[in-house]
Amino acid sequence: MSASSRAELWAGARDALITVVPSILAYGAVWGGLARQAGLSLGELVAMCLLVSAGTAQFVALPMLTAGAPAALIVLTTYIVNLRHYLMAANLAPYFTRLSRPRLALLAHGISDEAYALTLARFARRPSTVAYFVGCAATVYLAWYLGTVGGALVGGRIPSPERFGLDFVFPAVFLAIVAREVRARWQWLVAGAAAAIALAVAVGVGGAWHIAVAGLLASTLGVWLAPASSGGASGGRL
Fold first, then answer.
1. Which range marks the domain in which residue 95 is found?
2. I need a labelling partner for 118 at 20 to 30 A (CA). Which of 142, 188, 196, 201 fits?
3. Would you say the pTM of this structure is higher than 0.90?
4. How many domains does the chain have?
């Protein structure tokens, strides 16, 4: 590895460390604790982090696993949740055109919201390098892994977590995400529709189907309502 590549690798790791790693560690610790309380063994949650490495999908899958949802439904739901990774990968693809398919497949496993945002910000200011993305992605990946293991070791020792309100952490995390991301009126409509559909299906059908049904129908509504500048194919309705 050349000196310039090593410098870019460190730059990616450094930028991740000073910006997103603290929140990733905290987020991972919450998931690790919840996973242990839900009955996952330390080996199972470590394997899930290493193989999936998608925080939002893992948060969504956890209550479905607890509810005994069919494996196919869990896969479908997490697939819908992670559809945004297609868009992120497509946006990064022009910067990595010289790489072979095996290397691209390996890099694709490291795509996350944080690594994607840091990489694009860097490439907007400086020439693009694969090493910078690798530094970001590897640091984010390691932070998520360490956070979840730490949370699992500590969280598994807390008896009756509902006494401390820890059972509310899962919905609280997603409420925080919605509060940060939802701005336009069409986004509020999609969020409201998702909540209404999920509640209706949960009351009427039960089980874990409310997550998949709300995700699929609300996502479809979002594609129809989103303006063209936000990725909607229809040009927008609001």
1. 3-167
2. 188
3. no
4. 2
DSSP for the chain?
--HHHHHHHHHHHHHHHHHTHHHHHHHHHHHHHHHHHTT--HHHHHHHHHHT--HHHHHHHHHHHHTT--HHHHHHHHHHHTTHHHHHHHHHGGGGTTS-HHHHHHHHTT--HHHHHHHHHHHHHS---HHHHHHHHHHHHHHHHHHHHHHHHHHTT-S-GGGGTGGGHHHHHHHHHHHHH--SHHHHHHHHHHHHHHHHHHHHT-TTHHHHHHHHHHHHHHHHHS-GGGT-TT----
One pLDDT digit (tens) per residue for the chain, 238 residues: 788 889 999 999 999 998 888 888 888 888 888 888 888 898 999 899 888 888 888 888 888 888 888 889 888 888 887 877 887 888 888 999 888 989 998 888 889 888 888 898 888 888 889 999 999 999 999 999 999 999 888 866 666 655 666 556 556 656 665 665 677 888 889 888 888 988 898 888 766 667 667 777 887 888 788 775 444 444 445 5
176 belongs to a structural domain = no
